[in-house]
Amino acid sequence: MDLNIPHHIAIIMDGNGRWAAERGLDRVQGHTEGVSAVLRTVDACLGYGVQYLTLYTFSTENWKRSEEEVSSLMMLLSEALTKYLPDFMERGIRLKTIGDIDALPDSVLAKLEHVREETKSNDKIVFNLALNYGGRDEIIRASRKLIDAGVSSTELTEEVFEQYLDSAGMPDPELLIRTSGEMRVSNFLLWQISYSEFVCMQEFWPDFGKDLLTKALQDYSGRQRRFGGR
Ligand code: IPE
Ligand code: IPE
Ligand code: MG
């Protein structure tokens, strides 16, 4: 089967906690394994020539988790950014972020800004992390920005609105994947997924990699996208 490769794949990485629980490990160990799955996924996307990969990494709702889990997630992110920056440079990976990252701990924010700056000329893939991200929050922040910029009601179109979203300049994802069997959007990319194809799979995120990505691409390649036409 010929695979149809999307320009942009978005993933709701879910099931780290359940993956750990099944093995009698604690949730943080699930997140640690989740980082390895991220690296395998970027690798596989590079191999397939995907141009944008957006990963739901920390939602505006995830602050409800225990302080211990939240700080472990921040720590893992911070360590991974330091550890993999040389790899990003070597392989042409450009880091971008969406979400209200100013609310992240200062040390994480500084590292994100550093890696975004260092990688800004890399052009093989945009590795886009959704951090303190909520679809509704993004839409509200965009609305505030465009009001502050003095955009009038008659000037406002979908194209203008998109320029104020965190995702400005990126194509909408053609494919949205969610692991761990859940079939909900959980406040991810509400605007951008209006016509995305949705692939849900039972496997937990730490088990994700090239094989499951290929399976999702096969599923996607068999879809007929009609966009309301016939
Ligand atoms: C996804 O795994 C990672 C994040 C949301 C940060 P979960 O931590 O949600 O794992 P489950 O859903 O509890 O199994
Ligand atoms: C969505 O997963 C958020 C991320 C993957 C970062 P959650 O596990 O937080 O979502 P719900 O609570 O199952 O909807
Ligand atoms: Mg979950």
Oligomeric state of the chains present here = single chain
Instruction: List unreliable stretches of 5+ residues.
Output: none
Name of the CATH architecture: 3-Layer(aba) Sandwich
Shape field:
globular
CATH fold-level label: Undecaprenyl pyrophosphate synthetase
The total count of helices amounts to 7
Mean pLDDT over the residues: 98
- Please provide the count of β strands: 6
What is the CATH C-level name? Alpha Beta
**What portion of residues belong to β-strands?**
15-25%
For this structure, what is the CATH homologous superfamily? Decaprenyl diphosphate synthase-like
What does this structure look like?
The chain is of the alpha/beta class. The protein has a single domain, classed as Undecaprenyl pyrophosphate synthetase. It contains 7 helices and 6 strands; from the N terminus they run βααβαβαβααββα. Strand 3, helix 4 and strand 4 form a beta-alpha-beta unit. The radius of gyration is 18 Å and the shape is globular. The model has no long low-confidence stretch (mean pLDDT 98).
